[in-house]
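Minutes, project huddle
Topic: does the predicted pose make sense with zinc ion bound?
PN asked that the exact inputs be recorded in the minutes so nobody has to dig through chat later. Recorded below.
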Amino acid sequence: MATLLPYGVHRSYAIITDPDAPGGVGMEADTFTCHHCQFVVHMKPFATLSNSNGLCRQCWKPICTACVRLGTCTPWEAQLEQIEARDRLLRQVSASSPMALRTG
Ligand SMILES: [Zn+2]
Ligand SMILES: [Zn+2]
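Predicted holo structure (tokens), as shared on screen:
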């Protein structure tokens, strides 16, 4: 029995190293994964979702600025389902093609 992840923001921690920075000083930053396209967004230090990136007004999940500009709610899971549905449809079509019917 699969258990669902707790509802909420999945956050991870990343350290960005900037080779151009004097002495190669690393910058620490929070990251979050866009709920729509799975893009990993590096948040600026002390930034919050409200002032640096977006929150989808339809699924209330953090999304990247590109998805904010799209203005549509297309969660990653829905996109995967669409791909799976298309695969199923293609399989059904190929299984019921005239060639397949004629062999019966
Ligand atoms: Zn996105
Ligand atoms: Zn959304």
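Observations noted during the meeting:
- The chain is about 35% helix and 20% strand.
- The mean pLDDT is 74.
No decisions taken; revisit at the next huddle.
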